[in-house]
Structure prediction request, 310 residues.
Amino acid sequence: MTDIRSFDDTGEAQFGDYVQLLKPRVMSLVVFTALVGLLVAPVHLHPVESFCAVLFIALGGGASGALNMWWDADIDAIMRRTKGRPIPSGRVQPGEALAIGLALSGISVVMLALATNVLAGALLAFTIFFYAVVYSMWLKRSTPQNIVIGGAAGAFPPMIGWVAATGSFSVEAALMFMLIFMWTPPHFWALALFMKSDYGDAKVPMLTETHGRKVTRAHVWWYTVALVPFALALGFTSIGGPVYLATSAVLNLESLRGAWRIWRRDESVAEADGYKVEKQVFKFSLLYLFAHFCALLADAALRGWHLGGW
Prediction:
């Protein structure tokens, strides 16, 4: 790795720089999906326990982000999109980021285990390891399928929330995991099609760089097709219901339509119109995931009212 200490270190770290290390935008998705996994579980924790569970899962997600930024600081310094991050800009030293990541990892895992159960703590530890080591240190720089396999790290939070509440795995938890796992590649590749990235300069083998944009378009379609059965299957489990099934049916039809349009688009046409379709599909993919988890909450609320309390 490049010696990050050689970068400009005249800037002084502010509190916001340390927050940025934790990747707060990614953390928001972690918090939301973990909360849904916890709330739709058949075992309900005390509100204080629930708050602590979500807090420690969020800290674990932040720890992963800090470790990722520490390891990727050399390529972050090369890419325009990331060179302003705290480490390559010199505002935070690599050793600080590593210490923060390791400290938050230990605190979040131990405290989640104490607040809920050991299995939840172990699953959080595995998630941090998977993102920091399996994805960041291995997959990201070695295979164009990095975002496919590495996407598992972002899919674990609802499963952790479920395990924190129940102390066990289930079909419902597995399908929430698969919903995010299968959603991640087409979501990311739709973004990659219209973002002028410099992964090639950083020697990161993203699919658009290694196989070209036509292949990437085909991957968006086929992964979207593969996503649909997992999304719909969740509606037929104990946490599904009429709201989820109706929502999922509409969202998946629109998702398939958008992915088909991406696949059939000529690159020259897409470039000429500013990648309007690709941008629309990317924005819709954000709504897609959010709406699915909101629908799970809605059905949980309906079941609670039917039973006389949630």
